């Protein structure tokens, strides 16, 4: 991805966001090809949203994401153990500031060993088919490169076709052993484009999140105004009776 492409995608997505707030139909905008998706780095302040996203996954989706049928307790322990200082957690938010897709890039920087990373992703059922998993993968790759981590490891169940497809498309070496699949990907060295791309992507995601926060507050305010008006109207009707 070049800087020119990044800026062009940012401009296009910004225009689409403005159209959404004017009430224009979004049916034609569900595909994400050629558009920069606002992918926000997550921190400790997003723990509740992360937990809500993972708990909403079906039993089968949990099985594909974690490699076992994770219970609510398993997921709560996983979220409680997230290391936001070491790893990178990314999320895609809807207009209600709910996480609809997230990725966990675990960075492994052990002394005496070549730096490596491990990638995992989950997407809410209703948000699939939009390329979010692939976009989160691309975002994780950019960050790993900029952290001078040039090896990425993906462990997935062999039946997890979307994850395997993402890894294969990224150029990973695929190894299968029965019900499990391992993918190994060598990443190019960081360069000016990768660093500028990450900076632009982060700034765009922050701006997009702020816009959604403002919009949510605005609609919440209108809802309260409507509630008050309805209450006054009902009171008048009762008084008239």
Q: What do these coordinates show?
A:
The chain is an alpha+beta fold and 241 residues long. It has seven helices and seven strands. It has helices at 3-21, 47-55, 59-66, 72-80, 132-146, 161-169, 192-240; strands at residues 40-41, 88-93, 99-108, 116-123, 151-157, 173-177, 180-186. It has a seven-stranded mixed β-sheet with strand order 1-2-3-4-5-7-6, with helices on both faces. A hairpin with a 5-residue loop joins strand 2 (88-93) and strand 3 (99-108). Helix 1 packs parallel to helix 7 and helix 5 (132-146) crosses helix 7 (192-240). It is elongated, with a radius of gyration of 21 Å.
List keywords for this structure.
7 helices; single chain; 241 residues; 49% helix; alpha+beta
């Amino acid at each position: 991805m070049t800087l020119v492409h990044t800026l062009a995608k940012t401009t296009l997505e910004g225009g689409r966001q403005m159209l959404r707030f004017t009430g224009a139909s979004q049916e034609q905008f569900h595909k994400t090809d050629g558009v920069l998706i606002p992918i926000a780095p997550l921190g400790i302040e997003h723990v509740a949203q992360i937990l809500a996203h993972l708990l909403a996954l079906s039993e089968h989706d949990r099985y594909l994401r974690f490699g076992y049928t994770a219970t609510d307790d398993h997921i709560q322990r996983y979220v409680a153990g997230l290391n936001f200082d070491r790893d990178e957690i990314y999320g895609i938010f809807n207009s209600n500031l709910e996480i609809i897709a997230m990725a966990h890039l675990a960075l492994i920087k052990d002394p005496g060993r070549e730096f490596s990373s491990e990638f995992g992703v989950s997407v809410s059922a209703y948000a699939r088919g939009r390329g979010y998993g692939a976009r989160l993968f691309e975002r994780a790759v950019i960050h790993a490169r900029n952290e001078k981590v040039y090896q990425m490891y993906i462990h997935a169940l062999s039946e997890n076709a979307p994850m395997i497809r993402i890894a294969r498309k990224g150029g990973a070496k695929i190894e299968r052993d029965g019900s499990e699949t391992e993918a190994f990907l060598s990443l190019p060295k960081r360069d000016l484009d990768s660093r500028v791309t990450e900076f632009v992507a982060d700034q765009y995601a922050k701006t997009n999140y702020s816009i959604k926060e403002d919009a949510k507050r605005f609609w919440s305010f209108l809802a309260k105004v409507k509630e008050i008006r309805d209450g006054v109207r009902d009171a008048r009707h009762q008084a008239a009776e």
